[in-house]
Design brief:
The chain is mainly α and 184 residues long. It contains 5 helices and 3 strands; from the N terminus they run αββααβαα. It has a 3-stranded antiparallel beta sheet. The protein is globular, with a radius of gyration of 20 Å.
């Protein structure tokens, strides 16, 4: 009797699964925190936490960070779509745990804010992002009001820069300074 050839489909590499799990977790938590924030903070004064170090306040942001590009919500939506597409495409080459974590954080955050831009008022491609956390002032005057998706994007971006500075590649290899100089 001959053995049947293995016909099981190829499973994605573990690092791609890590990226997906992180992205889905961030997206789910972002949607949950925004839903709770709208339900509990709408029409209420800011909620002071940690002696005024943190405030919870509901802000609907039509722009990007620091309320930039408020008239270009549709452009921000297209940029978020592009980020999602690029991360999904490069994930095939992914063999590094650090890169998987970083890209998962960025992807989850991008999807969280993209969800707002697609499904929140005033309408598709123009939706305002729900921001909730304000640091050191109840009105965002010290630091812009932000949400979980924003934090995830920033943390993922910092990790991506760190991976690049350490010479870690998407495929898990490490580039030395000598290799980087000789390839220029």
């Amino acid at each position: 009797m001959t053995a049947e050839p293995d016909t099981a489909p190829d499973l994605p590499p573990k690092r791609v699964l890590l990226l997906a799990v992180v992205a889905v977790a961030i997206l789910g938590l972002d949607i949950l925190t925004k839903t709770l924030s709208v339900a509990e903070l709408e029409g209420r004064p800011p909620v002071e936490l940690l002696g005024g170090a943190v405030y919870l306040i509901l802000v609907r942001n039509p722009g990007a960070a620091f309320s930039l590009a408020t008239g270009y919500t549709w452009v921000l939506t297209l940029i978020a779509v592009a980020v999602v597409v690029v991360i999904v495409r490069i994930s095939r080459k992914l063999r590094s745990t650090g890169w998987a974590l970083a890209l998962g954080l960025v992807l989850g955050g991008a999807l969280g804010n993209l969800t707002d831009r697609l499904f929140r008022a005033p309408g598709p491609l123009q939706g305002h992002v729900v921001d909730v956390v304000s640091l050191f002032a109840p009105d965002g005057s010290v630091w812009p009001v932000f949400n979980l998706a924003d934090s995830s994007i920033v943390c993922g971006g910092i990790l991506l820069v760190l991976m690049a500075l350490l010479g870690r590649e998407l495929d898990g290899t490490k580039t030395t300074k000598e290799e980087a100089v000789s390839s220029e």
